Amino acid sequence: MNSVNSTNTWLTHFNKDYFDSLLSFRQSEGYGRLGRQWESEFGGLYYSQVLPHRDILSIVVGVSVADILFRNAIDIKLKWPNDILVNGKKLGGIICQFQGGNVVMGLGININNKSSLATSISLSDLGCNIDKLSFINDLTKQIQLNMDRTNPEIIEQFMTYDCLMGKVVSWQEGKGIVEKISEDGRLVVKDNNTNKSIFLTDEVHLE
Ligand code: BTN
């Protein structure tokens, strides 16, 4: 499509089968997690796909995206649960919205769009040029491959891209050191106040 309000909104209304997907050149109402706006000017990748439900799905997708970008010589990092980073800046993000038994997965990647945010980076900033259609083709294959892997295998692969382990992070109610990602995809953090391990489900901030 040339332009749509949001590929996720569109696919949520019209999705039919697993792996149905939508790619748009821009979005007028792109959104990210926690209701945040997602800048969606021409040049970026705005893509949504219907996927079967699976626990840790957003981690499976993040690992799949990272696998492909890594093969394209990008020093890719993943910030739990689903931020895609390079050099500490945001290259892309993933949102998974549950709808009945399905999930509408949305992926935004800065390709050669110019972001207004100093905290963002694009593939063109890194001198990398990827073809959106072949990227999506590779992504579908990689997701299908990774879907067959067990949770421990996926988490192990996530760890090769992880940028949080051993770091101090803060969340709404506290601060602590990241220990691991649990088998069910939660971030395990040692709480500074109680010295106990707690399991987080929402995003954290690096201190
Ligand atoms: C995040 O990091 O908060 C997730 C961002 C997800 C953005 C993508 S762009 C394609 C799809 N359509 C949307 O409106 N959002 C997702």
Helix content: 10-25%
Query: Which strands sit side by side, in order, in the main sheet?
Result: 2-4-8-7-6-5
Stretches with pLDDT under 50, minimum 5 residues = none
What percentage of the residues does DSSP assign to strands (E)? 25-35%
Q: Major sheet, described briefly?
A: 6 strands, antiparallel
Query: What Rg, in angstroms, do the CA atoms define?
Result: 17 Å
Number of strands: 13
Report the average pLDDT across residues.
95
The small-molecule ligands in this entry are: biotin
3D shape: globular
Count up the helices: 4
Structural class: alpha+beta
Q: What is the CA–CA distance across the termini?
A: 40 Å
Q: What order do the helices and strands follow?
A: EHEEEHEEEEHHEEEEE
Question: What can you see in these coordinates?
Answer:
There is one protein chain. The protein is an alpha+beta fold. The chain is 23% helix and 31% strand. The protein has 4 helices and 13 strands. The chain has helices at residues 7-14, 57-71, 132-147, 151-159, and strands at 3-4, 21-24, 26-27, 45-52, 77-79, 83-86, 89-99, 102-109, 168-171, 174-181, 187-191, 197-200, 205-206. Strands 2-4-8-7-6-5 form a 6-stranded antiparallel beta sheet, with helices on both faces. Strands 12-11-10-9-13 form a 5-stranded antiparallel beta sheet, with no helix packed on it. The longest helix has 16 residues, at 132-147. The radius of gyration is 17 Å and the shape is globular. The protein starts with a strand and ends with a strand. The mean pLDDT is 95. The structure holds biotin (BTN). Biotin is lined by residues 6-8, 27, 30-33, 36, 38, 46-48, 83, 93-95, 106-108. Residues 6-8, 27, 30-33, 36, 38, 46-48, 83, 93-95, 106-108 line the site of biotin.
